[in-house]
Amino acid sequence: MKPKKLIIKTVSQKYSILIGPNLIVNISKIMKKNLNNFEKCLFIVDKKVPKKFIFLIKKSFQNKNIFFEYLTMNEKNKNLQTVNKILKILLIKNFSRKDCLITIGGGITGDVGGFAASLFKRGLQFVNIPTTLLSQVDSSVGGKTGVNTKYGKNLIGSFYQPNLVISDTNFLKTLPYREIICGYAEILKHALIANKKFFKYLDKNFLRILKLHSPFLENAIYESCKIKKDVVQKDEKEQDFRKILNFGHTFAHAFEATLGYSKKLNHGEAVLLGVYIALSFSNKNKILKRNEYSLILNHFKKSSLPSNINKFFSKKNINKILSFMQKDKKNISKKINLILLKKIGYPIINNSYKINYIKSFLKKELNN
Ligand SMILES: NC(=O)c1ccc[n+]([C@@H]2O[C@H](COP(=O)([O-])OP(=O)(O)OC[C@H]3O[C@@H](n4cnc5c(N)ncnc54)[C@H](O)[C@@H]3O)[C@@H](O)[C@H]2O)c1
6, 67, 135, 274: which has the highest count of C-beta atoms within 10 A? Predict the structure, then answer.
């Protein structure tokens, strides 16, 4: 199968995203074609990525000057200490700006590694090899990098576009099903904010996509990346328009934070709950019409996607949820900014609501 290719052109960088199976077998050749000459490469690898993939990469590079660092990647380690660890290796091994840092892992690995790449000597070449569905359809596109602090998620970071993204779909075969659902959450979000035709494609083929069947999987990754690419090209640094990508995320981030980022609810599942609740808010505020709303609810139901916030929260969580929503980076006043949906493909941004208004909405959504 020929890889699908997307080219992203932002003010700061032009780069390719390659999507398909068996790409890493030829990684050395692909990098030579897409990057400036480099002498050394440091691979930052999530420890959970099976070694059989790393073996293929080593084979492709043969005797080149490559180094591997295997790290435990989770939200707790997505911090400045991990960034420091990476910077130290680059310094000790005397990397130059012409050399290359490559991340192999999910969104956490790409965000941390990309941030380190942006800092080292003010930026060295960076290749992102996303290994989760979420990172292939979302986080590897658009150049947001960063880490968490005790004050909140992703509050320290930079915009740093990679020089190349290689989305080898073989990685997804070892991913737990729960993580596949997380990636699907962002695919669905992209369809809802940008493309009704793509939503219909998902509605027809979601089972094939979730089972990782070709070419449905590659098509879904490609379309999802294309939607994000179009948004990022218009507004690389999230001045305004890029905010549409946060559809459902104001609720989602608050849900995750309220549960202390526990395994009970991971990021993608929180996004699905957040999208579901933002749809309900849009409908109850007469922004999203009943027929389109039903179409989307039906998709959630058919595909058994997480949608019931009552499984995770009760009325006693509302104040905590609201306090996290207030910390959202998009808020510019005391009100809470929400991205809402008018109809599929038509999001609306810059709607701010008083805290008490959202509080009474949440009270009605929660049963106990
Ligand atoms: N930069 C952006 O624009 C952007 C966008 C969305 C999300 N994010 C960030 O991405 C992160 C979530 O990304 P994620 O869902 O990929 O999480 P992740 O990196 O934690 O990966 C999910 C899980 O899958 C494991 N894993 C990774 N590849 C595997 C493989 N091939 N086989 C088996 N297991 C594998 C990981 O170890 C982890 O346990 C969050 O920190 C979020 O803030 C960033």
Answer: 135
